[in-house]
Amino acid sequence: MVSEAPAKQKAGKKRGFIEVREDECKGCGCCVADCPLGLLQLAEKLNRMGYHPVEYKGEGCIACGICFYSCPEPGAITVYMLEEGE
Ligand code: SF4
Ligand code: SF4
User: Fold this and answer.
1) For residue 50, how far is its CA from the centre of ligand 1 (angstroms)?
2) Domain interval for residue 9
3) pLDDT of residue 4
4) pTM: predicted TM-score of the whole model, two decimal places
5) Pocket of ligand 1, candidates 19, 37, 68, 81: which has the most ligand atoms within 8 Å of its Cβ, to mutate?
6) Res 84: pLDDT
7) Ligand 2 centre from 25 Cα, in Å?
8) CATH code of the domain containing 42
9) Which ligand has an atom closest to residue 20 CA?
10) How does pLDDT run across 17-60, given as a tens digit for each residue?
């Protein structure tokens, strides 16, 4: 899902963050390969299904949504858009 964060809206530079439901992730690596900024990586740990889940490196997301659209697992990735100052 690509969602706006539940916060006040301001004009400004686009940025965001993502959340991963790690037990929905199959560790295919599509989003890792497709993020244009290289912000995703597969974790060393295993999830409940025995896959290495993707993890966000923690900053720099521009909320482009590419990882969401490249993911074959509905609900594994949620992208949030923020505005400058949030
Ligand atoms: S929304 Fe875009 S910039 Fe952010 S993690 Fe996904 S692919 Fe990378
Ligand atoms: S594309 Fe989806 S299933 Fe594949 S590693 Fe990324 S979050 Fe996991």
Assistant:
1) 24
2) 2-82
3) 61
4) 0.85
5) 37
6) 73
7) 5
8) 3.30.70.20
9) 2
10) 999 999 999 999 999 999 999 999 999 999 999 999 999 999 99
